[in-house]
Design a protein that fits this description.
The protein is an alpha+beta fold and 77 residues long. The chain contains three helices and three strands.
């Protein structure tokens, strides 16, 4: 399907759905092909654990800080 820019602006959602269903959409300017709407293809898969072993902490992150607890709960000791 070929469609002019002004029409594509008004029908963008419809065109995206068409591309999602596998149809080819060409956007034209003054009836000259300018751009193709194509489905997105991911460049590469996401790697999990990228920073594994590269970060360390000097204290236990799950240990509660007494000053922060006092701010939330007051001095309840």
């Amino acid at each position: 399907m070929e469609i002019n820019v002004s029409e594509a602006k008004a029908q963008l959602s419809k065109l995206i759905n068409m591309v999602h269903r596998g149809e080819r959409v060409v956007i034209c300017k003054n009836n000259l092909p300018l751009a193709d709407l194509v489905p997105h293809k991911s460049q590469r898969k996401r790697r999990l654990g990228l920073l594994q072993g590269k970060w360390s902490s000097t204290h236990d992150l799950l240990q509660q800080d007494p000053d922060v607890e006092a701010m939330f709960y007051g001095n309840v000791r």
